[in-house]
Each structure stands twice: as structure tokens, then as C-alpha cells.
């Protein structure tokens, strides 16, 4: 049989919707689980994607769809990175060839893809709040529908989960919370809660003992039930001592478990109990991240949490050759600075390896803190560290700092505290889709008084600007750089104040007539220099500058703008409130009446795809920028000059 025929003959190919699962026998479900794992490994090995988390929830997802009736019942997946199995059994198998590729299947739940998807997430710790609201809505509307939220032990370290639990308990609606406890976020989950959960995990035998006692006593009708109650109370005491599920029960939420999350029948039985309970219930399912695929199970770093691209099935190793990444440059320099300065400490929000903080953690474990998926806490805890005389470096993805705006604004900036936030994956990211784009930071944090923001363009400026950032003592700094491989160093021809200039022309030369001041932000410097070269070939005089620090706007830029007919900015962030807007305002404030056009990411929800594809779609390529600039300059040529204050506009 050919590979296609084998695929067609599989059980998996007969499952087109969740209802199909309910007709299968136990044996067939076991075969199906194995087929799903093979399918996941085969598909993700070609596209990249979230592998380990999905391998761990195969049985759990099958059980959920057999016990609950989606879409009438609503299944919510916290973070959403573990929803591939849910996608597979809800009619989307065919989409996996283009998983996370432009125009293909998304990597997270998507309402456009399926009626079985309820929320479009990817940021952690939100599902319980959605579940609380949804259950309240069903109750108010008199709709007898179940709400089930699957949340990882990692996501449970996020504060929103606890705010939600507090409310779910008070509302008493029948919300089923499935804690998918694999003991890991990327690396092992940290914190007091994680320790509690692992106590529960490591002591599963008491549940079995309880069942044996119940069974045998239940057969002696007269003495059985009362004696059972006594024994149950004793047992509960023991259980509370070793396993603080009391924490949940004290809140008013019933606790069921722990149950082996790979024993589908056991999970189904726990879920049925929870479904029939009629109030809020936690089902504690213990799973193994990467289960059933050896390279994932044995991957100490993160159980193949999310290979970024194609990998070898035998070894689990990426096929793409290794390259120097922005993250690596930052990580090395941070360690070098920490070697020199004992006051430097690092903070990660459950992403030590992906943000590079792991390197500091290995060398200086006592000076590095993993706070869990808790970016808000990370910011304010950093404020505390700074008040205590240290200089914290908080390394998070740009998209995740959005939720800590108030903490950065008031707890750090208003106190004028020296905290450096390092934003990895800033700008257009790509395959993870709209919620992972790091395009808001320059707008959102641009309104924080006293905050300085740097956007390095290459490895050398990452090092340089990181050092500048940690030397600032009277307020917070942000250093932001994009995802992927760092480009070749682009040395400046000249530096005026803090502003770097490049190009084939005599950049930053005073009083020389020029057409365009092209202000490039961060990693767009190569693009800008390339665009300027194209424009120079057409006879335009272009000055390319990299302000390096874009907030506040360097004063040198206003002086430079005066020497040009047009200012064009190009940035890897939303145009609204971005660097272009900020420079336009600075020019207005300085009475510099030179027109400014800003290029960047339009304010919209952008689809998933590769970074380069998305940048090309947005016209953020050297060719597009050059074409756009020629159009603008020729329009300037066509226009009758309007009256402007004398001395602020240069004539051709
Ligand atoms: C607010 C936020 N911060 C960080 C992340 C990055 N992130 C994605 S998955 C993950 C670990 C999640 O662990 P867990 O919830 O236990 O799920 P598992 O992968 O173990 O199934 C992290 C930190 C995120 N998605 N959202
Ligand atoms: C679910 C999540 O938030 C992360 O796993 C994210 O997908 C990682 O992105 P990178 O691949 O850019 O590290
Ligand atoms: Mg986990």
C-alpha cells in the first residue's frame, strides 16, 4: 500500500467531527490515539509548531470530546497552543500540511476555522475568565450548556487564573476546569503552586486506597456507609496533609483527581463525575509533555515545546542550520555585564531559554528569577529589586509586556526606577499570528514618562545599547529586537549626538541639500540603506539615520529634518502612536515644517505567515520603500509650496 492508501485506510481519516469519536470502541480509541501521535509528529516535523504540548493531550482531548457535546458545550483551551488534537478531531486534518503557513491552518483556536473554537488566544491564563463569563451568560439566558476550560500547570501560575477561580467559586456555575498538569511550562514549572501540584501528582495512591475501602465497605450494608464516612474523613486528613487540594476545596471548588491523563477511560470517568456535579469542579489530569515520541520526552530543555521549523523525525533536531540569533547576542552580553556588575539580576516569565535568560541563570542562579507566567508581577517585582539597590533586566517577548502596562507605568516609571525590559520577538513575528506580533510596544510604552526605548539594528548595537540601558539609573529602559537571525553588523559612517548615519552619500553633512531624511528604526536599517541606494541611483539625495534610542525622540533629528525636503520613517511596529508619530510631533513642537511620511505596520489584525512574507505584504521591503519615496518626492515637486515659517524649509 502507498503512504496515501495507508493514510486513507486509517481510523483517523474516518474521524471528521467530534461525534465520530463516540462510536468507537476502547480498542479503536487506543489505535486512534497512536495514529494521532504519528500524524502530529509527521506534520509538525515539516512545518514546525507546538509539538510537545499536543502529544501530551491526545487522550485528554479524546475524552473531552466524548464526554462533552461540542459545540453545544463549550471547550476552551488556555493559551491555545495545545489545541491541535482538538483541531484534528473537529474536521481540520487536511489543513495540517499548511499549519502556521501563510493562508493555511492557524496554530491556535480560530473561530473562522471551526464552530468548535470559542476563543482566539495564545496569551496564557485567560481561559478561566472566559469560562466564568460564558457560564454566567448561559445561566442568565437559561441555556443548559457545559463550559469546560483546559488549563496547563504553567498557565495556572498566571494571576488571572486565580482571579477567575475566585469568581468561579463564588458564582457556583457548573464550570469544569481541567488542569493539564505535566509539571512543565517550557522548563519545569516553578513556584509554590507547582510544588503543591507535584505533591498531588506524586501521591496518587491514596485515591486508589480510598476506592478499595469504599468498595469493600459498601458490600456490608449496615456498617458500611457510616464507617466509610469515618474512614473517608481520616483519609481526607491524610490527603490534605500530603496534597493540598484543600486549597481548591476551601475556595469552594470541588477537586477530582489526580487522574492519569493518558488513561483515557480514567479521564472520561473523572470528566463524567465533574459534568454531573452541577457546580465548579477541578479535574486534575497528570500528563507527560511530549508523551509517546522519544525525542520530545527526552528533550530536557522543553520537551520539544515548539520547534520553530522543520525537524528530523529520528532525532527531533531542526533541519535548518544554526545561526546567530538576536537572543543569543543579548544573552552573551548580559552575562558579560553581570560578570562586571554584581547589581545586575535577571527575570524571566517562564521563558528562560527562549529569552536567553537561561544563560545568566546557569552562571548566576542566585541572581536570576523565574516568576512563572506572570509578566505583571515580573515588572513590579523588578521594581522591588530596584528599590533594593539592584538593576533588574526583565526579558520577555514584546507581545507579553503589553499586559504589564500599568506596572511599567506606575510601579516602575513613576518611581523612576532603573529597570531594563528586554523585548525579544519585537515587531512582526509571523507564524504565531496576530496575538504574537510584537508591534505595540513602541506606541504603548512610548507614553510612559521618563521611559527610554532603544531599538538596536544589529549585534554590535544590541551590545552597545544594552550597556547604555543598564547604565541609566533614573528610570526604566526598553531594548527591543525582532525574532530570528541577527543580520550582519552595519557600522555607522558617522554619529551625531546619539544618532547614527549611513549611506553612499556624505551622511549628516551640514547644509548639504538633500531630498529625504530616511529615519530607520532598529532592524530596518539594512532595508533603509538598501532603499537609499536604489533612490541614489535615481538621483535622489537621501540621508539614512538610525536614532538608536527612539524614545524620547533625539533632538538631533529635528535639526537634521530641517536640511531635507521630506522626512520618511520606517519602523517595525504599529504606525499609530509609533516612532513616526512621535517624530512628527517633535518636529511640530520644534517648529520644523518639513512634511513627514511614516511607514510601518497598519493598525489591524494581521494574519499568520513567515515574517518576510508579512513584511512584503505590508510593503516593508527596500524596493517598496524606494518606490513609495519616489512617489512622495514627485508629489512634493508637483505641489506649490505653502507658506512656512522662514528658515525651516530648504529649497531645491
Ligand atoms: C502571557 C504569556 N506569557 C508567556 C507565554 C509563552 N508561553 C507559551 S506556552 C508557555 C508554557 C505553558 O505551560 P502550560 O500552561 O503548563 O502548558 P504546556 O505547554 O505545559 O502544555 C509559555 C510560557 C504566553 N503564551 N502567554
Ligand atoms: C504559545 C507561545 O506563546 C509560545 O510557545 C510561542 O509560540 C513561542 O514562540 P517562538 O517560537 O517565537 O519562541
Ligand atoms: Mg505544563
TrEMBL record:
It is an enzyme of class 2 (transferase). Transmembrane segments: none annotated. Homodimer. Its cofactor is Mg(2+); thiamine diphosphate. It comes from Dactylosporangium fulvum. This is 1-deoxy-D-xylulose-5-phosphate synthase. It catalyses: D-glyceraldehyde 3-phosphate + pyruvate + H(+) = 1-deoxy-D-xylulose 5-phosphate + CO2. It holds the Pfam family DXP_synthase_N. Binds 1 Mg(2+) ion per subunit. Binds 1 thiamine pyrophosphate per subunit. Pathway: Metabolic intermediate biosynthesis; 1-deoxy-D-xylulose 5-phosphate biosynthesis; 1-deoxy-D-xylulose 5-phosphate from D-glyceraldehyde 3-phosphate and pyruvate: step 1/1. One of its GO terms (molecular function) is 1-deoxy-D-xylulose-5-phosphate synthase activity. The keyword Magnesium applies. Thiamine diphosphate binds at residues 81, 122-124, 154-155, 182, 293, 375. Residues 324-488 form the Transketolase-like pyrimidine-binding domain. Catalyzes the acyloin condensation reaction between C atoms 2 and 3 of pyruvate and glyceraldehyde 3-phosphate to yield 1-deoxy-D-xylulose-5-phosphate (DXP). Belongs to the transketolase family. DXPS subfamily. Its EC number is 2.2.1.7. InterPro entries: Dxylulose-5-P_synthase (IPR005477), THDP-binding (IPR029061), Transketo_C/PFOR_II (IPR009014), Transketolase-like_Pyr-bd (IPR005475), Transketolase_BS (IPR020826), Transketolase_C (IPR033248). Keywords: Isoprene biosynthesis, Magnesium, Metal-binding, Thiamine biosynthesis, Thiamine pyrophosphate, Transferase.
Amino acid at each position: 500500500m502507498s503512504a496515501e492508501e495507508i493514510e486513507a485506510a486509517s481510523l483517523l481519516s474516518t474521524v471528521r467531527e467530534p461525534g465520530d469519536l463516540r462510536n468507537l470502541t476502547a480498542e479503536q480509541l487506543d489505535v486512534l490515539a497512536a495514529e494521532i501521535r504519528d500524524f502530529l509528529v509527521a506534520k509538525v516535523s515539516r512545518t514546525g509548531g507546538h509539538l510537545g504540548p499536543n502529544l501530551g493531550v491526545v487522550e485528554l482531548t479524546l475524552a473531552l470530546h466524548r464526554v462533552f457535546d461540542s459545540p453545544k458545550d463549550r471547550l476552551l483551551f488556555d493559551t491555545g497552543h495545545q489545541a491541535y488534537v482538538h483541531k484534528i478531531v473537529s474536521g481540520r486534518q487536511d489543513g495540517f500540511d499548511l499549519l502556521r503557513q501563510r493562508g493555511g491552518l492557524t496554530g491556535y483556536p480560530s473561530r473562522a476555522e471551526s464552530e468548535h473554537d470559542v476563543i482566539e488566544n495564545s496569551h496564557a491564563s485567560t481561559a478561566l475568565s472566559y469560562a466564568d463569563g460564558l457560564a454566567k451568560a448561559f445561566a442568565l439566558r437559561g441555556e443548559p450548556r457545559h463550559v469546560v476550560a483546559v488549563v496547563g500547570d504553567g498557565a495556572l501560575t498566571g494571576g488571572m487564573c486565580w482571579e477567575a477561580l475566585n469568581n468561579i467559586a463564588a458564582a457556583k456555575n457548573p464550570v469544569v476546569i481541567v488542569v493539564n498538569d505535566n509539571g512543565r511550562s517550557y522548563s519545569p514549572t516553578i513556584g509554590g503552586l507547582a510544588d503543591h501540584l507535584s505533591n498531588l501528582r506524586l501521591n496518587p495512591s491514596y485515591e486508589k486506597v480510598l476506592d478499595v475501602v469504599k468498595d469493600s465497605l459498601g458490600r456490608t450494608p449496615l456498617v458500611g456507609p457510616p464507617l466509610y464516612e469515618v474512614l473517608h474523613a481520616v483519609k481526607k486528613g491524610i490527603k490534605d496533609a500530603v496534597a493540598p487540594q484543600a486549597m481548591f476545596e476551601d475556595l469552594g471548588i470541588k477537586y477530582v483527581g489526580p487522574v492519569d491523563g493518558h488513561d483515557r477511560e480514567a479521564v472520561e470517568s473523572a470528566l463524567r463525575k465533574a459534568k454531573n456535579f452541577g457546580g465548579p469542579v477541578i479535574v486534575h489530569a497528570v500528563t507527560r509533555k511530549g508523551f509517546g515520541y522519544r525525542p520530545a520526552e527526552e528533550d530536557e530543555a522543553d520537551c520539544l515545546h515548539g520547534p520553530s521549523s522543520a525537524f528530523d523525525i529520528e532525532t527531533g533536531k531542526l533541519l535548518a542550520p544554526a545561526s546567530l540569533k538576536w537572543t543569543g547576542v543579548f544573552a552573551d552580553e548580559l552575562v558579560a555585564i553581570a560578570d562586571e556588575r554584581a547589581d545586575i539580576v535577571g527575570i524571566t516569565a517562564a521563558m528562560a531559554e527562549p529569552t536567553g535568560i537561561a544563560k545568566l541563570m546557569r552562571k548566576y542562579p542566585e541572581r536570576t528569577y523565574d516568576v512563572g507566567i506572570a509578566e505583571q508581577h515580573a515588572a513590579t517585582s523588578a521594581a522591588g529589586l530596584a528599590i533594593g539597590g539592584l538593576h533588574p533586566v526583565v526579558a520577555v517577548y514584546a507581545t507579553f509586556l503589553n499586559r504589564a502596562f500599568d506596572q511599567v507605568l506606575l510601579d516602575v516609571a513613576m518611581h523612576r526606577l532603573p529597570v531594563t525590559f528586554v523585548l525579544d520577538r519585537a515587531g512582526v513575528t509571523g507564524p504565531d499570528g496576530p496575538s504574537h506580533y510584537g508591534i505595540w510596544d513602541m506606541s504603548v510604552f512610548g507614553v510612559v514618562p521618563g521611559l527610554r526605548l532603544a531599538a538596536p539594528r544589529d549585534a554590535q548595537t544590541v551590545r552597545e545599547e544594552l550597556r547604555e540601558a543598564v547604565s541609566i539609573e533614573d528610570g526604566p529602559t526598553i531594548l527591543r529586537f525582532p525574532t530570528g537571525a541577527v543580520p550582519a553588523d552595519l557600522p555607522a559612517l558617522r554619529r551625531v549626538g546619539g544618532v547614527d548615519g549611513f549611506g553612499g552619500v556624505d551622511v549628516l553633512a551640514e547644509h548639504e541639500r538633500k531630498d529625504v531624511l530616511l529615519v530607520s528604526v532598529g532592524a530596518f536599517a539594512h532595508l533603509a540603506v538598501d532603499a537609499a541606494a536604489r533612490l541614489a541611483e535615481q538621483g535622489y539625495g537621501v540621508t539614512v539615520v538610525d536614532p538608536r534610542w527612539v524614545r524620547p525622540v533625539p533632538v538631533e533629528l529635528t535639526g537634521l529634518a530641517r536640511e531635507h525636503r521630506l522626512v520618511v520613517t520606517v519602523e517595525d511596529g504599529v504606525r499609530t502612536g509609533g516612532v513616526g508619530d512621535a517624530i512628527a510631533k517633535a518636529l511640530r513642537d520644534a517648529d520644523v515644517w518639513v512634511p513627514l511620511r511614516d511607514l510601518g505596520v497598519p493598525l489591524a489584525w494581521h494574519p499568520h505567515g513567515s515574517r518576510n512574507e508579512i513584511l512584503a505584504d505590508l510593503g516593508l521591503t527596500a524596493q517598496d520603500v524606494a518606490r513609495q519615496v519616489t512617489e512622495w518626492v514627485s508629489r512634493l515637486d508637483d505641489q506649490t509650496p505653502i507658506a512656512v515659517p522662514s528658515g525651516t524649509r530648504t529649497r531645491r
